[in-house]
């Protein structure tokens, strides 16, 4: 997938105001409209212009796009970083094909075939909030949506966390600034990645005596140095000495709930998975925890340790770890 420089497409600097973007878009749209332009690439250019405008005219999408940084070049290979949108607060509910929600056609009447780059950031149909959404906001406040990262241990114990959210705001000068707020959140025990917490009344404000919108927090786990989560199951790598794997042993294993003892069967090989039933993510149907065995060799950095390895070589004269690769 290739990076798209939307500012370059519209011919405006990154410091452009929203009025600058609107003016540039209108000028280019008139120039490359397929019904008017005689250029051979008019249709392709018109689609590119509409896609760039769809992002840059919307303060939320523009701020998220800018978060990627200015070091990317158009046409450069690109992959969004994991959880790139964490901590951003956006309008719209939770049922979207991307962080900005889905549903409805693209706002503004200009249809285009969204590129893979656009879809990777905003989903397939992540249009701006249209007139219907604004009419509802005149009565009740809009729901907001944000992704937040928690520790896997929080899902085991439950936790009280203070989170920070950032939302783009267009100033009187037409430039976008970030507004930050903090919220105290209760993380319930057993919550899974992808589930949502609803904070009633913490979404968009309402006019008069109408009801404020809700805030939906999508839960994801922070990358962990020891634990890997797959669905409801949790994996941890367990280093073993060669004699522990060969002769069997009882060793301590770190889990998100604390240390437990695990019996290593004799003759265990690297890569073997030992299951601790029900010690994965808690819940009505708890997951399992898998200890993935790793055999770690001590260094041969002294006369005594080198002699120990030489004794092993003599003790296993017929051992060939590559025999299975020979036909």
Characterization of the model:
There is one protein chain. Helix content is 25%, strand content 25%. The chain is α+β, with helices and mostly antiparallel strands and 327 residues long. The protein folds into 3 domains: 6-80 and 96-133, Helix Hairpins, CATH 1.10.287.110; 140-221, HSP40/DNAj peptide-binding domain (Sandwich), CATH 2.60.260.20; 227-319, Urease metallochaperone UreE, N-terminal domain (HSP40/DNAj peptide-binding domain, Sandwich), CATH 2.60.260. Helix 2 (18-32) runs antiparallel to helix 3 (42-56). It is elongated. The two termini are 40 Å apart.
Give me the secondary-structure topology.
Layout: H1 6-10, H2 18-32, H3 42-56, H4 59-66, E1 89-91, H5 116-122, H6 131-137, E2 144-150, H7 152-157, E3 159-170, E4 176-187, E5 196-199, E6 215-221, E7 227-230, E8 233-240, H8 242-247, E9 249-255, E10 258-264, E11 273-276, E12 289-295, H9 303-315
Parallel strand pairs: 2-6, 8-12
Antiparallel strand pairs: 1-2, 3-4, 5-6, 7-8, 9-10, 11-12
Helix pairs in contact: 2-3
Features:
single chain; HSP40/DNAj peptide-binding domain; Helix Hairpins; about 25% strand; alpha+beta; about 25% helix; 9 helices
On the 0-100 scale, what is the average pLDDT? Answer: 86
In CATH, the architecture of the largest domain is Orthogonal Bundle
Strand order of the largest sheet: 1-2-6-5
Write down the CATH topology of the largest domain: Helix Hairpins
Compressed to H and E, one letter per element, the order equals HHHHEHHEHEEEEEEHEEEEH
CATH class of the largest domain: Mainly Alpha
Number of strands: 12
Give start-end ranges of low-pLDDT stretches: 93-110, 125-137
Roughly what fraction of the amino acids lie in strands? Answer: 25-35%
């Amino acid at each position: 997938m290739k990076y798209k420089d939307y500012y370059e497409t519209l011919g405006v600097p990154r410091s452009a105001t929203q009025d600058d973007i609107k003016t540039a878009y209108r000028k280019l749209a008139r120039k490359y409209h397929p019904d008017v332009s005689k250029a051979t690439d008019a249709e392709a250019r018109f689609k590119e212009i509409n896609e760039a405008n769809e992002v840059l005219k919307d303060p939320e999408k523009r701020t998220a796009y800018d978060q990627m940084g200015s070091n990317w070049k158009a046409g450069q290979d690109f992959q969004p970083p994991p959880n790139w949108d964490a901590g951003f607060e956006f309008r719209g509910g939770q049922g979207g094909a991307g962080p900005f929600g889905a549903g409805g056609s693209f706002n503004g009447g200009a249809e285009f075939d969204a590129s893979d780059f656009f879809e990777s950031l905003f989903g397939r149909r992540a249009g701006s909030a249209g007139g219907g959404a604004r009419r509802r906001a005149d009565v009740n406040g809009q729901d907001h949506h944000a992704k937040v990262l928690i520790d896997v241990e929080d899902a085991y114990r439950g936790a009280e966390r203070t989170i920070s959210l950032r939302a783009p705001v267009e100033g009187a000068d037409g430039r976008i600034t970030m507004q930050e707020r903090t919220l105290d959140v209760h993380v319930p025990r057993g919550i899974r990645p992808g589930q949502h917490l609803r904070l009633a009344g913490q979404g968009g404000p309402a006019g008069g005596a109408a009801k404020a919108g809700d805030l939906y927090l999508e839960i994801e786990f922070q990358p962990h140095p020891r634990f890997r989560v797959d669905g409801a199951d949790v994996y941890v790598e367990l280093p073993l000495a060669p004699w522990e794997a060969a002769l069997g042993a009882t060793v301590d294993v770190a889990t998100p709930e604390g240390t437990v003892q695990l019996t290593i069967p004799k003759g265990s090989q690297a890569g073997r998975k030992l299951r601790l039933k029900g010690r994965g993510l808690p819940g009505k149907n708890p997951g399992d925890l898998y200890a993935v065995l790793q055999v770690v060799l001590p260094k041969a950095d002294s006369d005594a340790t080198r002699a120990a390895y030489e004794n092993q070589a003599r003790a296993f004269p017929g051992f060939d770890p590559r025999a299975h690769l020979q036909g």
